Amino acid sequence: MILLMGYVNLNPSDVNEFTADVQNVVSSTRTETGCRFYAFTLEDARAGRMLTVQRWEDQESLTAHVERHESAPFLMKWGNRMRMDIQKYDISNERSFME
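== Antibiotic biosynthesis monooxygenase ==
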């Protein structure tokens, strides 16, 4: 299992447009094989900071997601307009937080 978590930083004036565009990506990504959880949320509009949390079954699923041709238009539009600070973690011994 792989967890990605971190921030996407934007020009604050781009936040509304990015949020609308990323919702299309979120909807389609959640149906992909190996996607366990995928979310973007606005953390600080004034700073232009979005939080992303993603959980993938394995590296192969994550790689397939990144290489999807449906992702290309989004990345072409936003690639130079966002700064990503996202970390990747390998998960082992997953369990309920109440245990």
